[in-house]
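New to this. Comment on this protein:
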Amino acid sequence: MIDTHSHIYLEQFDDDRDEVNRRAAEAGVTGIFMPAIDLDSIPKMEKLKHTDISFYKMAGIHPTEVSDELPEDLESKLTEFCSRDDYYGVGETGLDYYWSTELVEQQKKSFHLHCRVAKEVQKPIIIHNRDSTDDMLEIIEQEQDGSLTGVWHCFNGTVEEGKRALNLGLHLGIGGVVTFKNGGVDKTVARLPLEKMILETDAPYLSPTPKRGKRNEPAFMKYTAEKLADIFGLSLEEVDKQTTETARRLFGLDQS
């Protein structure tokens, strides 16, 4: 399995990161993609060493980290990082209207900027979306020129929104919320194509049932995979194979 969205570099793992990675490997995780929160995330990611698990870096600015004025050199810096062979995506970026709507225009400007970088370097964009689905999809529609690919991270939209995202060239990142009893995400996911889904944790956040309320970690992704197997009437191995192949294709691992 590949965890396509994990902040394993954060301080929440400083005391036991080796043990966390060991448990992930024992659970069948072979790769972890690490979206940045801001540019300060990059040196933290650079410190991680490959063991039984491969680590894949990304660069971007989370929408809740956007400030009043975007740095003038932000686009050139992101392009510089994301064009490197050891960076596999652009993000995470997107929109978040849950915590604040004070900087909506700045968030949109940043999101557009990340889309331009993703098209320039031809790598997937990782999209955070919270209480902002209409605007998020509208921006992807504006930016899509046939070359933009990416992931709707932590997908929790409606069937119609999911289909629109797929038609716009996005994949759906499926994480712990699909296991929540009364969330309804499982019923939505059941009506969308598995071949467009990839697994993720968002560790240390959004732990799946039965680990809800605890610090999330990549090993817990097996619960999400088991839930997808139940939803689609498949074996865990079939879900593992499909989502892994999709992730490898999306992020260009077979070409790297």
Notes: The first strand starts at residue 2 and ends at 3.
